[in-house]
Amino acid sequence: MAAFSDPEAVARYADGPPRFVPGFEALHRMTGILLAEHAPADASILVLGAGGGLELRALAEAHHGWTFVGVDPAREMLRQAERTLGSLMDRVTLVEGTIDDAPDGPFDAATCLLTLHFLDPAAREDTVRAIHRRLKPGAPFVAAHGSFPQDDSRSRWIARYEAYAVASGADRDQAAKARSAVEAHLHTLAPETDAAVLRAGGFRDVELFFAAFTWRGWIGRACQDKG
Fold first, then answer.
1. Crossing angle, helix 172-185 and helix 154-167, to 10 degrees?
2. What distance in Å separates the CA atoms of residue 72 and residue 128, rounded to the nearest whole number?
3. Bridge-partner residues for 47, per DSSP?
4. Contacts of 14 (CB under 8 A, 6+ apart)
5. What are the pLDDT digits (tens) for 116-171?
6. Which of 116, 172, 123, 121 is nearest to 144 (CA)?
């Protein structure tokens, strides 16, 4: 997490996700497609974990009528997002903080990519509920993050995470450090547990749409009953 506050590390951030997340650009493209199934052409989108701006840029370029509120706790990452977005910033509002600092909305859709694995299960469910409270009934929500079996195969999956990064051009030492961080610090859950967290947080029709080594992504819709 400290790297997100390091200006030099943040400046290199865009090089990292494509090397560690198989199908990173395709994930953004699929996210836009899934949101557009239910979000209107002039949708207001909540993006939690927006720092760096890569997801915001991809969605803004693909959907010219959408506006965005991007939330992230790392100030340096938000500064990088401004640089990444350039002229697209006229459709984006950036908020430094957590989901509790986000506007109440209600929003037409929301995303949370490569973020929820930083939260323990209780905080994760609280965050999902807070996203749900900020959405219109029926609004789509896309979440994607580290999620893989937590049984005896766990170490094998983490080794594949490291191997993919090296095969994609990551420095071997960097990949090894990333593997150690995943093993020691990320709150990864089994995919079925992650899907249950989304349902417990208020989402229905939860569907898995993305699976790539140690990564999973789901689409769900906010329950009509917002009480």
1. 150
2. 15
3. 70, 111
4. 52, 54, 84
5. 999 999 999 999 999 999 999 999 999 999 999 999 999 999 999 999 999 999 99
6. 116
Strands 140-146 and 109-113, how do they pair?
parallel
Question: Is-contact 204 210, C-beta < 8 A?
Answer: no
Number of CB atoms found within 10 A of residue 173's CB: 8
Helix, strand, coil % over all residues of the chain, rounded to 5: 50, 20, 30
pTM value? 0.92
pLDDT digits (tens, 9 = 90+) for 28-81: 999 999 999 999 999 999 999 998 899 999 999 999 999 999 999 988 889 999
Give the span between the Cα atoms of 170 and 163, in whole angstroms.
9
Count other Cβ atoms within 10 Å, centred on residue 193: 13
Using CB atoms within 10 Å of the CB of residue 224, give its burial: 0 to 12 exposed, 13 to 18 middle, 19+ buried: exposed
Q: Which are the contacts of 73, defined by CB distance < 8 A and separation ≥ 6?
A: 51, 96, 97, 98
The whole-angstrom separation of Cα 102 and Cα 134 is: 9
- Asked if 31 contacts 55 with a C-beta cutoff of 8 angstroms, the reply is yes
Query: What does each C-alpha distance from 136 to 131, 167, 173, 203, 223 come to in angstroms?
Result: 10, 42, 45, 12, 9
Burial class (CB in 10 A: 0-12, 13-18, 19+), 90: exposed
In one-letter notation, the amino acid at residue 169 is G
